[in-house]
Write a structure and sequence with these properties.
This protein has 215 residues and is mainly α. It contains 9 helices and no strands.
Amino acid sequence: MSKLSRWVHGGIAAVIFASLVIQLVLIFAGGADANSGDTGGAVGLGTRLYRLFSFFTIQSNLIVLAAAVCLVLRPLRDGAFWRVVRLDSLLGIVIAGLVFAIVLAPQVHLTGWALAATIGFHYISPWTTLAAWLYLGPRPRLTWRAVVLAFVWPLAWLVYIFTQGAFTHWYPYPFLNVTDLGLATALRNAALVLVLGLLLATGLKALDKKLPARS
């Protein structure tokens, strides 16, 4: 099982790394952003990079990448900090996959390498990560303390997005765009995503206890 875990998580890490390299090359070459389809227009390279790493999807994929590498090195990894990181990787990437598929995909029309990157970020990474956890674990690992602490990062991200948006008037996702929707609607939408995250975290915690142990 440890050998299989190393191969699976190594594959997940490779997909995310390749997608990130493709996306960075596109940005440096003036190509499309795999999250929004935006080609940058008049904004500079520094602004495009700052915006790229502000996307929840990209941050989620980076956490999954870190978790996958950790599991390649040590498939039975455990520890208080690890449990939070692991849950954040699952929560973040599954929410990113769901929100993109349901809300954003109909609005983003990509071709070529940008499409390849978005397939890696939004389709392969979320569902292989979830499937790998369901089958390979390791578990049991999740605690209610880990569930609470796992929401520190999403909440901090929302605070960051709304704060920077007040100065830049740029928001990574249309449903959080205060300029177009107004603050009340944007905050409501953010709250709905947090509720989705809470339901997902509760479900993952229950599955972590009920599914066969992988340790």
